[in-house]
C-alpha cells in the first residue's frame, strides 16, 4: 500500500524579512498598484485557504507552515472509492462528518479580502482567478459586485476552482453531477437522528470544528448506521439503487487534478502577463507548480501572504517577491486610492460593496494566521 502524506512544509529556520515585507502600509499599497499597472489587465491571481480564514473557515496549516492539526486524518481518495466493506465504512464516516460540516461552509459569506479580489477582477486589473479553495466564496464575492452592474462580461467562468467545489457532488460511475444541497437533503431524509443533530447545531450555534474541506471531527462517533445513498440519477435511469459512488466535486488528498482543470490552469498562466499570489503556503504541488511555471516563463510575481511558503524554499530568490503580511489591508489601501481618481459603472459597483465583507473568524483562531 502506498502511503500518501498530507502536503506540508519542512521545518526550516525562518528567513529574514524581505524589503517588500518591511515596506510601510502606504508604500506596500503603492507597490501593489505599480505591479497591477504593469500587468495591463492580464494579471492572474492565485489564492489559497488563508483568504477564507476571516469567513470562519479554518486553514490547514499554522504559523510555521506545518499541518496545524496532526491528529486529524482526512480520508484519502483511494479509501473513499474502495468497492469493499472497508470502502463503504470510509464513505459512511466521510459523509456523516461532512453532513454536519458542510452547512457552515455553505452559509459562509465573503470576507473583505474576497470583496477586494473581486474588485480587482471587475475593474479589469486582474480578471482571471485561480483558487485552491473549495468554499465557493470567490464566486459569491464576484456575483455580489457584478450584481450592481447593468451588464458585465465577467462571470464565474473567469474563476478556476483548482481543487473543485463543495457546492456540487458527482458519481464516479457515470459522472452525473447534482447540487450538494440536493444530496444534503437526501442524507438528512435517510438519517433522521443526524438531521436532528444538524438542526440542533443550527439552533444553538454549537457546531463541531470544521476543516476547509467541510469535514468535521467527531471523536467517538459511531458511523455504522449512517446511510449513504448512491447516485439518484443512476437510479432514475434504471442502473440500480446503489449504483454510482457519490463524492463531492473536490480533489481529495491522494487524488490527481482532472486533466481539463490542470490544462486550463496552465493555459491561464501561458496567456498571463504576471501572477499575484494571495493567502497560501503553496504546500500543495498543484499550486506550487503554477508559481514555478510563472517563474520559468519569467513572469513578474508578487506574493502577499503570511508565514513561510514552498516558493521561497523551492525557487531561488523568490523571497524578494513576497510581502509577508496580511493581504486584505494592502488591497484595501490600494483600492481606496484608486477609487478616488477613477469613475464609471465598475467603480461605482465596487464602491457599493467595498464594506460588505463579513468577518467571522474561526473561534479557535486568535489574531493573524499563517496561510493555508
UniProtKB/TrEMBL annotation:
SUPFAM superfamilies: DHS-like NAD/FAD-binding domain. Residues 22-341 form the Deacetylase sirtuin-type domain. The keyword DNA damage does not apply. PROSITE patterns: SIRTUIN (PS50305). GO terms for molecular function: histone deacetylase activity, NAD-dependent; NAD+ binding. Residues 197-212 have a biased composition (Basic and acidic residues). Pfam families: SIR2 (PF02146). It is found in: Mitochondrion. Gene3D superfamilies: SIR2/SIRT2 'Small Domain, TPP-binding domain. Keywords: Mitochondrion, NAD, Transferase, Transit peptide. GO terms for cellular component: mitochondrion. InterPro entries: DHS-like_NAD/FAD-binding_dom, NAD-dep_sirtuin_deacylases, Sirtuin, Sirtuin_cat_small_dom_sf, Ssirtuin_cat_dom. Residues 197-221 are annotated as: Disordered. The keyword NAD applies. It comes from the Eukaryota. Belongs to the sirtuin family. Class I subfamily. PANTHER family: NAD-DEPENDENT PROTEIN DEACYLASE SIRTUIN-5, MITOCHONDRIAL-RELATED. This is DHS-like NAD/FAD-binding domain-containing protein.
